[in-house]
Records
---
Amino acid sequence: MLARLAAVRALSPANSPYFMAALGILTSFGPMGTDMYLPGMPTIGVDLRATQDQVQWTLSAFFLGFGVGQLIWGALGDRFGRRGPIAIGILLYAVACVGCSLSSDIAHLAGWRFIQGVGACAGPVLVRAMIRDVFERDRAARTLSMMMLVMGAAPIIAPLIGGQILVWANWRWIFWGQGIFGAIAMLALFTLPETLARDRRSSLRPMTLALSYRQLLTNRSYLGYAFGSACIYGGMFAFISGSPFVYIDLFGVAPENFGFLFGINIVGMMAMSTVNSRIVMRFGAERILRIGTMLAAAAGLLVLVVAALGLGGLWGLVGALLLFMAMMALINANAMACAMQSFPHMAGTASALAGMLQFSVGSVAGWVVGLLANGTAGPMGMVICGSALLSLLLNVTLVRRAPSQTAP
């Protein structure tokens, strides 16, 4: 077994049959860490005597940890390579899974969820850097889209697993299931080669890191890509945070069936990822990003109208959300590839900062949905619509030309 893994690592990443599959698994920490326990959120509130907004703290805490932690892992990945920091992150994630399962109140559960998010983000942030190590911009965007097809099973399977666990056991066993996924991800990591050569690794000195982040935060195009993508993530996390209560409490969907409605959106994202992977090499990542952002804004407006007026009931809302979520596939992969294109010498740091912004904005969006909760789908629709419109505004005002120039 070890000899086979060593042979796989010896292959060029672009030629390895396991490369995309392993990257897809490592990128799935986000959906596996959130979607699996979504069906149990109402039950957690009852068991721990917590209100809806308090239960949503646990989701926002994970998002916040997932965002802030990326700054740490991005810097460590640029200094020590990609594989070692990912392994440490997986171990931290596994410890936090045990802590979550043993929590006796909502405050401790939120604290462990924050730690779980910090560990979980090591894989996704450094996987994006590994892709940038191997491919140039448009090929990287195509690879990210193809990887979304591989990892697309996670958001479909995760809530279904969580719902079935609730049929046979309590919500605490969901976190043991997440720990098992961590073990699978560690095995996938062993099949990957190190993609960052030693002569390309950067320093961890505070001044060097400060200059790197200053370089990123003063680059107009980078800000447009990173913040625009972060706003779209805010809309996605508004859906993740609000949909369990809207579907289960408002429309009476059984928890074990929640995963099917949730999975419809992932099918839409996978379909658009296929489209993006086929057309990005022809039209370019930036042009498709602009079109995707415009379509997402239109879909966000539709979600708001349907949620506010109740048009079509449950299935009207499901259809509007499907259109919005599908646009994620045209935005995220292209925005991330464009953001990292001008900074190949610090791809880990560029990926980390963009990822931190995505999940920080996402945590705020999820918190706002809980804060405005009134028993209807209106708050979720308002946050989704506002996030999409802001993303379009940032793209139009900050991204004015293709980032073909190198960073100063």
---
Amino acid sequence: MDEALRLHAFASPQPGARLVVLGGVHGDETCGTVAIERVRADLESGRLALRRGELTLVPVANPLARRRQRREGERNLNRSFQPDPRPADYEARITNRLCPVLARHDVLLDLHSFHTDGTPFAMIGPRDNSGPLEPFHRAREEGLLALHLGTDCVVEAWLEVYAARLARRGEAGDARALAFGWGTNEYMRSQGGYAVTLECGQHRDPQAPEVAYRAILASLALLDMAGEPPPPRRPPRLLRLVDVVDREAEGDRLLRDWASFDAVQRGQPIGLRADGQAVAAPCDGVIVFPNPQALPGTEWFYLAVDSDRELRA
């Protein structure tokens, strides 16, 4: 029997922004769930009042993966995130339930955590453009939301790097392969909204739920839905993803316990293939999302460089 999806909706009599917050897109990422349940309790007790707009809270977006206490139920929910008239797995059925929820909102905050040590960071989409990959016209609003989430780093250009990965693998013209790269944020942007993913810290970091909780409150305040905006912080470092390296075999291994934003220099060995061949950094930059447990054929680590983009309040 399929696991049921639980949503909590709050609506003010006063019109305003429509925000949806997701937790537990991956079953082993619990910080968003804890934070969402805390905000729900605040609203239901009256400690927090929704003065305008609509708020939908989804504590566990992938109930099957959560019950199994692993990243995926049957596959990664944050891929192929588009309606499917013939859903073939649990995640496709959940996607069909979540897509209409996202489509009727203006803003998405998607709360995640990561495998290895590292500091929290936000992820945003493309700059305003009318190109074929991911046309978008709300980059300023999206960047403003990222600025208010309180992280020291903001990372851009996920889908561009994913498309380049497909090109290297000879799948550049495969629409299904590109569609597989779509997650919650890409779908939200395709529906006219905007979205930020917040990586709140390592899975078991006791501070990660607090990072997620503060981010929800900051989002509500920025959108004039509830609470007061936090004091301004120094501008975050803005990074642009430029490469992704796949783990190809079980014998592939990283040469150290890398953490997101560890610096690397061009030519520096990062890992070893199963046959002993070194995997070296193609440029100066930083590691993002190192995953020593990545399955063969999936993303092993990303590389990023400083971006020339400016995010302005």
---
Amino acid sequence: MSSNIFITGTSKGLGSGFADYYLGKEDKVYGLSRSSADQFGSEDNYQHIQADVSDFDQIKVKVKELLKDVEYLQLVILNAGILGEIKGITDASIDEMKEVMDINLWANKVIIDTLYEMKIKVNQIVVISSGASINGNKGWSGYSISKAAVNMLVKLYAVEYPETHYTALAPGLIDTGMQDYLCDVVDHEAFPSMTRLKEARGTDNMPTPKEAAKRIGDILPALLMTPNGSYEDVRKL
């Protein structure tokens, strides 16, 4: 039996991989992203809407439009996010970090609140976090802070809405376009954690988005057995 799956950030990277994975299982996929997802244009089971996730009013309107006929979602994957610039914490301005927080944290709150406002029953919500949320490596500034806040956001929703299972999930290293910046542009001497990323690129330790989406998708049902609201890392599951 097919399921209704709602995924953000489906135009590229891991979000696109997730959409491809669930469409391959003949599920009905509802995708939301800032740019178009033309790669799924011929898929009857894919419904997409474009929205700027930094525009909270627009997100609310677009989510309501996309899911207007949906009463139940088996799974929601809140994947859309941005990295921001790798720089020292004293060099990162509040405005820069606020932009990252708006997209990585508050946009997710707007989406979740809209689902509850629409009275859509949701079985499972997975918000994509990161190992950066607990590592505290030099240069990750706003990104690490936003993902650490995501972990707590998930925990709070799980306490207040226990009928839905929540997880903040670190997906591991993935070879997306972000790695072009991290591996080839960022100064590795100034920010040593980048060296590990470059060494992992092209190996099994950094799969493609489609490979990563399959690995993660295969284990998402098992997350229902983990504590509601917990932070999990795919590399430890």
---
Amino acid sequence: MLITLPFLNRAIAEYLSRDLTYQLSADDVYLIVGCSQAIEIILSVLARPGANILLPKPGYPFYDVRAAFSHLQVCHYELLSDQSWEIDLGSVEALADENTVAIFIFSPGNPCGNVFTYQHLKKVAETAKKLGILVIADEVYHRIVFGSDPFVPMGEFGSIVPVTLGSI
């Protein structure tokens, strides 16, 4: 269910803009009951015959289950455990083909707890742009960060390609 509460959309846009170098508008915010429902909607929208999505390994299993329900093929890219669980962009490029519609990323990562750096997220956005796919950034745990790497919202690269999922 899509919720329409203009005053709430404005307040959320202002709140999220605090972490960005630009301002979101109320029109940039879509309210849905729960992040799981947002995942279902996004995967349903992306589903078409032969389409595939890129998911991390290890990752959050709900995406695999819901993708199967939507008849989306899943290709798993590697996370580099010896490099703070960064995305192996070489494996992303090797897996992507003309049927790839999106790459899903998690930062802070579930289940690894990693937080991607600004530089790494920029490379992810540039890779997605080169491949002609969306970046779906699951940032539900954006306020639960441990260690020295600060949280950087994928929305910072909004001029390149991303869609961000969050939760309040």
